Amino acid sequence: MNNEIVDITIIGGGPTGLFASFYAGMREMSVKIIDSLPQLGGQLIELYPDKYIYDVGGFPKILAKDFVANLVTQAHYSKPEILLSETALSVERNGDHFILKTDKGVHLTRTIILTAGIGAFRPRKIGLKEEVEFEEKTLHYGIKDLSLFKGKNVVVCGGGDSAVDWALMLEDIASTVTLVHRRKRFTAHETSVNQLMESTVDVKTSLNVKAIEGEDGIVKEIVLASKDGSEERVALDHLIVNYGNISSLGPLKEWGVDMDRNSIIVNSRMETNIEGIYAAGDVTTYDGKVKLIAVGLGEAPIAVNHAKAYIDPKARLQPLHSTSVFN
Fold it and tell me: Given pLDDT bands bounded at 50, 70 and 90, which one contains residue 229?
């Protein structure tokens, strides 16, 4: 056990956690970041490093991997101790600090900020037994290298932002792009859907993937079925499935924090029901909550400022602006 007590331990190294680390440094707090993934960046790096992000102020669009690289550089302002491939298991209070146990050790911390995103996740699959044969070869749940699809015939399944964004990004890379959605209406942002409809992407709605055909892990055709039983075949080289993720907060659910489904309930201070434990980003819920990266980046300083005031009641809750700090 490391006997040093840090001011803040951040559970989750995605965008919200990284920005919380930076802001904690501005408040001159010591920081530790713990993440179960082998690298920082959360879903953005694990699933979508080459996908553009559009919902962060100051960036009309930026690749996820470049955005994360900037956040990592910024996060080091607090000189955090970063522990990767380590899973938080349990927490207990010991006087003025917490004893946090992970699968690799024990850590002491005055406060905790939970920025675990959607928690541990795995992709939601089509549900066909033959899927396994093609996974990691020509069936993909995320894209880490766009060049793989150059000059290929690609089918993207899904109707959310990820599916629509991938279809649009692949338009100028692949030979053909087909987007298959199970429903008539899309859940992606309206602007993206409008761009899709004006693109060369072949959009097919109200269709389910009934079968995947091919051999040796190489897809050749998919069979699409409508509700009335009619079918059509689409030839392809790669299949990308973006049906979202099945997620779980795992051991965090046993900490005693109030939850609504798979989200942690917080108040306007980003406080959980446990004094000294805060949460920010997609892991949280409250009346009016919107799950966007930009929102998490705003919630992180709120959590940090209140953690600072919790540790030191004499500290300013509202510090000077960053322009004043750096000038």
Answer: confident
Task: Return the pLDDT at 252.
Answer: 87
What is the pLDDT confidence band of residue 317, given thresholds at 50, 70 and 90?
confident
The domain covering 125-241 belongs, at the CATH homologous superfamily level, to FAD/NAD(P)-binding domain (3.50.50.60)
Write down the pLDDT at residue 320.
Answer: 60
What is the model's pTM? 0.77
Residue 306 in tokens: 């209140």
C-alpha–C-alpha distance, residues 143 and 167, integer Å: 11
CB 111 within 8 A of CB 6: no
324 three-state secondary structure: helix
| Assigned fold of 5-121+245-326 | FAD/NAD(P)-binding domain (3.50.50)
Q: For residues 1 and 104, give the distance between their C-alpha atoms in angstroms, rounded to a whole number.
A: 10
- CA 25, distance to chain mean position in Å, is 23
Domain with CATH 3.50.50.60 in the chain: 5-121+245-326, 125-241
- Cα–Cα distance measured from residue 20 to residue 15, given in angstroms and rounded to the nearest whole number: 9
Q: Which helix (H) or strand (E) segment is 309 a member of?
A: helix 293-311
Please name the helix (run of DSSP H) or strand (run of DSSP E) that holds residue 46, with its range, or none.
helix 43-46
Handedness of CA 112, 49, 241, 295 (dihedral sign): positive
Cβ neighbours for 256, distance < 8 A, ≥ 6 positions apart: 273, 274
Give the relative orientation of helices 161-170 and 190-197 as an angle to the nearest 10 degrees. 40
- 123 three-state secondary structure: strand
Pairing mode, strands 106-114 and 5-11 = parallel
Q: How far is CA 277 from CA 11, 89, 111, 257, in A?
A: 11, 15, 6, 9
Which phi and psi (to 5°) does residue 6 adopt? Answer: -90, 160
